[in-house]
C-alpha cells in the first residue's frame, strides 16, 4: 500500500513537471537574503590603489591624491616636471599634532580628515574636521582651527520642473558700475549711480507681457538686452503627504510641473541703448513656437549679441546674432533634424572670440561631431572631426594653438562605448589619440593643460592611473594600478561583457552578465534584466566597480542578472538613437531579447523560459512595458516609480523624444492605455511624494489594470520620493522574483527577527 502511494505521488509530480505547471519546492531560507545583503560588507576595503582623483596644486602643475593601501590611506604629492612621487606629509607627526589641537586621537592611515587642499608652495594644507576648516603648517606641524566649513551640498526634495520666475531677480549693475538696470511696473529702467536718477527704457511692458529681471549688459556698459515675456498658465500637480513626520494630520502640497503639450512662456530679446535712452526693437516673428530662448552672449567689441533659439519639438535649433545698432537678425547656426536634436545631451558651443569663430557640435552627418563656423557670416569653414564614431565631450579648446582636446568613443577596436581622449587642429588635421590602454578613460588636466592624469579600467579589469603629456600623450609617470586580489578572494564574480547582434543582424549590442558567488554551470538559472532605456544616455557600466550595485545582490539569491544597451539609447550613431523617436515603448526590446537568447545559446544554464525584468523611472516604464508588449519573453516584471504615460511626465524629457505637438504615438507607448495587454506577473511600486515623476502615473496604471480585471501587486510608499523603494521595496522586488521565477516561497518576514 505504501509503495502504491509513493508511486502515485511520484507519477503526479512527473506529470506536473512535464506539463510545465508551477510546483513550489519550498521556501528560500532567510540566510540566502542575509548573504546577499552582506556582499557590500564582504567586499569593503578589498581594492587597493588605482583610482587616482588628482587635486591640482596652484598653477605649477603638481597635484595631490589619496591612495588606499593595505596600510590605510596614503597622501601622495606628484611633481610632473621633476617626475617625483612622495608622501605628502608625515602622518605620525600629524596624528600627534592633531590630538594636541583637537583632543581626539588619530591613527596614521585612518586620519579622520577630508577635503585636503595644499598651498601652492606645499608648506601647509587645509582640511575639514568636525564641521570646521583647519590649517596644518608643515614647518612645525602646528594645527590651527579656522572658520566653520561650508555645508556640503545635498540634493533635497527640489521641484525643478516648472519655468523660471522671470519677475524676481536682483537689479543688474553695468560692468563700469555707472548704471543699474531693474524692472519697475513691468518695464525696464536704469538708474544712474552718479546722481541716482531713474530712466525708463521700455513702454510696452504690462501685466500680460512684462519684462524679465534677467538682463545682460554689453561689455562697454552702453547697451542692455532684456527679455519681454509672454507668460503661460502654470500646470500644478497636487500631493497629499499622508504621514508627515512632524504632525499627525496629512499635509497638502502643490507644485508647478509642466507636462507635454502645455503652453510655454515666450521670451523675446529686446535691445536698449543707454546713451540715447532708446529701445532698439528686435523682430519677435523670427522666434515662433519657442521651447527656449537663452544663452545671451555679447561680442567683445560690443557690435552684437547672440542667443540660442530652441524651437518647440526640438527639430530646429539656431544661434542667432543681433546687430547692436539696428537690432537686425542674422542666423549664424541653423541646426535641423527630421527626428530630434539632442540639445540636452550633445550640445556643445565654444566661441573663439579672437578669431571670430564658433566650434559647434552636430549629428548632421549621422554621428556627433565638431564643426568650425565663421561667427559673423554663419558659414561652416570646415568639419573638425569626422568618421563613424562619436564625440562624447570637449575637454578644452586651445585658441592660441588652434587645437581641441576632446573625448570620443567608437574610434578604437572593441567596445564602442569606451572613451578615449584625442587632440585635433581646428582645421580637422593632426588627429592623434593621447590615451593608451583598452578600457574606459577619465582624464584630469593640469591648470596649464600641459599634463593630465589618465585613469582607465573595464568592468572586468581594475583601474590603472598614469601621468601623461597633453601634447602627444606620452607617459610621464606610472602612478597606480589597483590590486583586486583580496576582492577576488571573497568569491565575488566580476561581470562578463557580452556582445550579440541586434535586430538588423548587423549592429553589435553590448551588455554585461552578473553571476552569483556560488555559481554552478550545471544548474539552470532564471534570467533577470536590470533595464533602463532612457534615450538621454547609455547605461551599461563601462568602468570598474567592485560590485555592480543591486545586480550582484539580486544574483546572489540564485539568478543570472544582465544589463543591456539596446537601440534607442544614446552614444552610438544617430540612426541607432532615432529608434526611440515617438516610440519609447520600443525600449530596444527586439535587441535585448536577441541578446539574451544569444547569451543563453552560449551559456545553456541561462533559462530563457524564466526571464524577469526590473527598473525605476524610465526603467519602470520599460519594465512594465516588457510584460505588456513582450509577454511571450518577459514573464515577471517589477516597475518602480515609472513614467508609465509620457503625457503625465515632465515636459522637457518627454517632448525631447516623443515630439510635439502631442500625437497618438503618446497613447501607443502608454502603459496605461495598454494595461489590458498584461500577461505574466507585475509588481508596481511608487512613492507618495515622488518629485520627479508624477506619482499618479503609476496610480493610473493601477486603475487601468483593475478595470481590465488583471491580477497584479502594488506597493505604495507613504512619504517616499522618486525611489526604487528603499530597503522595503528591495525586499519586495526580491521576494517577487523568488516566488515567480524560482518557484520558491520567500521567508515569512513577520516571523523572522530583524
Structure explained in plain terms:
Helices cover 17% and strands 35% of the residues. It is of the alpha+beta class and 754 residues long. The strands form ten sheets. It has an eight-stranded mixed beta sheet, sandwiched between helices. Strands 1-2-3-4 form a four-stranded antiparallel beta sheet, with no helix packed on it. A four-stranded antiparallel beta sheet has the order 5-6-7-8, with helices on one face. The protein is globular and about 85 Å long. The two termini are 46 Å apart.
Features:
754 residues, alpha+beta, Rossmann fold, four-stranded antiparallel beta sheet, 14 helices, 35% strand
At a glance:
The chain has 754 residues and is of the alpha+beta class.
Classified by CATH, the class of the domain at 513-742 is Alpha Beta
Strand order of the largest sheet: 35-36-38-37-39-40-41-42
- How far apart the termini lie comes to 46 Å
The shape is globular
Q: Helical proportion?
A: 10-25%
Unreliable parts? 1-24
Radius of gyration: 30 Å
SSE inventory with pairings:
Layout: H1 2-18, H2 30-37, H3 39-43, E1 55-56, E2 63-69, E3 72-79, E4 84-87, H4 91-102, E5 114-118, E6 124-129, E7 132-137, E8 142-148, E9 172-173, E10 179-184, E11 187-192, E12 198-200, E13 210-217, E14 223-230, E15 236-241, E16 251-256, E17 266-273, E18 278-280, E19 290-298, E20 304-311, E21 316-323, E22 329-336, H5 343-346, E23 349-352, E24 357-362, E25 369-374, E26 380-383, E27 390-398, E28 403-409, E29 419-425, E30 432-433, E31 440-445, E32 451-458, E33 461-469, E34 475-481, H6 485-489, E35 496-501, E36 508-514, E37 525-530, H7 549-555, E38 560-565, H8 574-578, H9 589-602, E39 606-616, H10 618-629, E40 636-640, H11 651-658, H12 664-668, E41 681-687, H13 696-707, E42 713-717, H14 726-742
Parallel strand pairs: 37-38, 37-39, 39-40, 40-41, 41-42
Antiparallel strand pairs: 1-2, 2-3, 3-4, 5-6, 6-7, 7-8, 9-10, 10-11, 11-12, 13-14, 14-17, 15-16, 17-18, 19-20, 20-21, 21-22, 23-24, 24-25, 25-26, 27-28, 28-29, 29-30, 31-32, 32-33, 33-34, 35-36, 36-38
